[in-house]
Design a protein that fits this description.
Radius of gyration: 22 Å
Number of helices: 14
Largest sheet: none
Structural class: mainly alpha
Length: 323
């Protein structure tokens, strides 16, 4: 019963991460340039966004940013590290690579907001139109749309696998407990309504729940690090060829690029940078509002990416040291 309860908690945590991740990706859909007067952006969305512009607090924005960065994909990082070395010493270069990836990604995230501030733009398309050209302004929204679509599909797969097991354990009807039924129900009553929201600020509560789920997952992994040690029941239950072994000296291997490729997308949230900048409150002060807002956005970027890097590092290290 204890094992079943732990499995249920892990499934609920993973499902919560996936559900919020999918909804955050959909709410953060790319806005189309306001310079185009062909009606592609609805008046209702423009009016709703205007009321929420510049109202988000720094703490709620930080929680939203952390949840936008860190998702269920972080669980693949231990595999990327183990792909190029079975030595515990490999954690040192892996953590260094993670720090570099987080720093570069955070800098680029901040630069997107700086371009929006310099051009008085509220979206990727508008900033591109003002700085590169009107004719090609469709390129960023199109690429961001493809990116968010592909990632949303991945999260939907996680939602289907997780919630079908949860619904089955709850004794719900077979139609709802099936993978297809779970996806259809949660899309209709969960992610779709959330994706129609005009502002990210409405996700502050679910972001807090998502971050709590991340912290629970990280804490659980840390507590379980010694559970598969030699002499333990779980270690004995694993077939000998699959038992974890930490041996061999640290040496360079081309397989390190498996970890690099995972880290390249570990901090991928730049498509929502204009949204975060637009909705962040400038705060009080004597300096001009734009300057205050950019200063707070820099704090948001530093805090959000630092917390995300710390969580990612804990999960990666715990996963490798466990298995």
């Amino acid at each position: 019963r204890e094992v079943d309860l732990q499995a249920m908690l892990r499934s609920c945590s993973l499902a919560l991460l996936a559900l919020h991740g999918a909804s955050a990706l959909q709410v953060a859909k790319p806005a189309i340039s306001t310079r185009r007067a062909d009606g592609l952006r609805s008046t209702a969305i423009l009016a709703a966004s205007a009321t929420d512009e510049g109202q988000a607090s720094l703490p709620s924005s930080t929680a939203n940013l952390v949840k936008s960065i860190v998702g269920s994909g972080v669980l693949s990082l231990p595999v990327g590290l183990a792909a190029f070395s079975s030595s515990r010493a490999a954690l040192v270069p892996a953590l260094a690579l993670l720090s570099v990836a987080g720093t570069v990604s955070g800098y680029c995230f901040s630069m997107v907001a700086r371009v929006c501030a310099a051009t008085d733009s509220s979206s990727w398309g508008e900033a591109w139109s003002k700085s590169v050209g009107e004719k090609s302004s469709w390129v960023p929204p199109a690429l961001i749309g493809l990116l968010t679509l592909s990632v949303s599909i991945q999260y939907t797969m996680v939602i289907g696998d997780s919630f079908s097991s949860i619904f089955s354990a709850w004794g719900l009807p077979a139609l709802l407990a099936s993978r297809t039924g779970a996806i259809a129900a949660l899309t209709a009553f969960g992610t779709l309504p959330l994706s129609l929201l005009p502002s990210l600020s409405a996700l502050s509560f679910t972001s807090a729940l998502g971050v709590a789920g991340l912290l629970y997952t990280a804490a659980f992994m840390v507590l379980r690090m010694s559970s598969y040690g030699p002499g333990s029941a779980l270690h004995a239950a694993v077939p000998p060829p699959l038992r974890p072994r930490f041996e061999g000296a640290l040496a360079f291997s081309p397989k390190v690029f498996v970890l690099v490729s995972i880290l390249a997308s570990a901090f991928l949230c730049h498509f929502v940078a204009p949204n975060f900048y637009r909705e962040l409150a400038p705060g009080a002060g004597a300096a001009p509002a734009k300057e205050r807002k950019m200063r707070r956005f820099s704090l948001l970027t530093a805090g959000g990416f630092a917390l995300s890097a710390a969580l990612t590092a804990v999960v990666m290290a715990a996963g490798v040291l466990t298995f």
